[in-house]
Design goal:
Blueprint lengths: L12 H16 L3 E3 L2 H8 L3 E3 L10 E6 L2 E11 L14 E5 L5 E18 L8 E6 L4 E7 L6 E7 L5 E8 L4 E11 L5 H18 L1
Antiparallel strand pairs: 1-9, 2-11, 3-4, 4-5, 4-6, 5-11, 6-9, 6-10, 6-11, 7-8, 7-10
Length: about 210
């Protein structure tokens, strides 16, 4: 026989409804990709931003740290002048990745994020080249760039409303060099005291009626 007892959330119904609606929205949301920078910025509103202007220009290295994230691969270099088709799209400096010895470039974030975007210059300018993107939560955008003319720039961004991201990985199938500039990301805020209080009250409302 089905149990038709109704849980009484009187006293906490308002906050519980807010949380329930939020969880329902999250469950139905999906990862969205953007190739238009303006549309991405309109969606995420006020992301953090890094254009490598404060970084020292130097020899290739395996790791470049910025406020909030670290880029890792076998060969990354901060440049202040164009090189082989790659260039800065904001200010004068940019990070250049050479995928000859390492086909993966990893962005690792200090805190969980919900959105990421970057402008890439001179990517996949070989007829055989493609560039893919994956995240630590299983997002996958295979070959989202392929066979572009020399010296082109492309924006690519994602917003994940299902889960928070710790890493974003670019994968090149071909030895190539390309620039990265205007890195956008949105850090997921810590839960507020009100949210924590509402979540704590959920079991209380259930026990009150069930008892």
């Amino acid at each position: 026989m089905l149990d038709h007892r109704r849980v009484d959330f009187r006293g906490v119904a308002g906050p519980v409804l807010v949380v329930a609606l939020s969880l329902s929205y999250q469950a139905q949301a999906a990862t969205i990709s953007f190739t238009d920078q303006a549309a991405f910025l309109a969606q995420v509103q006020a992301p953090s931003f890094e254009s490598f202007e404060s970084h020292l220009v130097g020899v290739p290295t395996s790791s470049v740290s910025a406020a909030g994230f670290t880029m890792t691969s076998a060969s990354i270099q901060i440049r202040n002048s164009p090189q082989a088709g790659s260039f800065a799209t904001e200010g004068q400096q940019f990070a250049r990745w050479d995928s000859t010895n390492d086909r993966e470039l990893v962005f690792a974030f200090d805190d969980p994020i919900s959105a990421f975007g970057v402008t890439i210059t001179d990517p996949v300018d070989n007829p055989s080249a493609t560039l893919s993107l994956t995240t630590n939560v299983g997002d996958s955008f295979p070959s989202f760039l392929a066979n572009l003319p020399d010296g082109q720039d492309r924006f690519f961004g994602i917003v994940n409303e299902d889960a928070t991201l710790d890493t974003v990985t670019f994968i090149s199938n071909f030895p190539d060099g390309m620039g990265f500039d205007e890195v956008y990301f949105v850090v997921v805020p810590e839960p507020t005291s009100l949210t924590l209080t509402v979540v704590a009250l959920l079991p209380l409302g259930w026990r009150r009626r069930a008892g």
